[in-house]
Design a protein that fits this description.
Blueprint: E1 3-8, H1 13-17, H2 21-29, E2 32-37, H3 40-47, H4 57-74, H5 90-102, H6 107-119, H7 128-137, H8 149-166, E3 173-176, E4 179-182, H9 187-194
Parallel strand pairs: 1-2
Antiparallel strand pairs: 1-3, 3-4
Helix pairs in contact: 2-9, 5-6, 5-8, 6-7
């Protein structure tokens, strides 16, 4: 059975634009997914990337065009300048880690719900009430947000180290076996690989 390690952060617009296509691919191939939220700024710093504020103006302008095109292509509403962004990625990451450990809900819906809250709904995904609401909407006990924070923080750090050691350098990043796929626009390639066609 195929397995996919998914390195991501709900603060990334490209994670939001991925929607739940990863979960659709996994279902199609009977693959399992481990959700590995991490801090993308730390991943960039460790692997040669630059945070948005430090990028050249031409790269910033292209990013806005690309986000607009991809949101239209995917038919997902997107706020180019969300009210609560930049935002601390740790609280939402901890909630996903705690939910994965607890079980009982839909992790794909939780990850997408948090990203949607940031990028389409102008909600603060570092706020406890927003996190609890997203947990409940995805079928988890909202009280998960209050439990296991120390363990979640430890896993959050481990996810970063694993991402770096396995060759990930951005989000969303998908790894299955020795094959690496970077970006929401590579989910189709992941699908083809799992089909044995690529």
């Amino acid at each position: 059975m195929a397995h996919i390690d998914y390195f991501f952060s709900a603060v990334s617009p490209y994670v939001y634009l991925a929607g739940q296509r990863l979960e659709e691919v996994a279902r199609r191939h009977g693959a399992t997914i481990t959700y590995r939220p991490l801090d993308p700024a730390q991943l960039f710093a460790r692997t040669g990337g630059q945070p948005l504020a430090q990028r050249h103006e031409s790269r910033k302008a292209y990013r806005l065009q690309e986000l607009t095109r991809q949101s239209r292509k995917r038919r997902l509403p997107l706020q180019l300048h969300p009210a609560f962004w930049p935002v601390n990625p740790a609280p939402s990451g901890y909630a996903i880690i705690a939910a994965q450990a607890a079980g009982g809900g839909d992790l794909g819906a939780l990850a997408h719900g948090l990203a949607r809250a940031c990028w389409a709904e102008n909600r603060d995904i570092a706020d406890d009430a927003v996190i609890r609401d997203c947990l409940a909407a995805a079928g988890f006990d909202p009280a998960i947000a209050d439990r296991g924070l120390l363990a979640a923080a430890e896993t959050y750090g481990v996810n970063l180290e694993e991402a770096v050691s396995r060759g990930a350098f951005g989000v969303p990043f998908y790894i299955t076996g020795d094959q690496l796929f970077w970006g929401q626009d590579r989910i189709e390639d992941l699908d083809l690989h799992l089909s044995g066609k690529l």
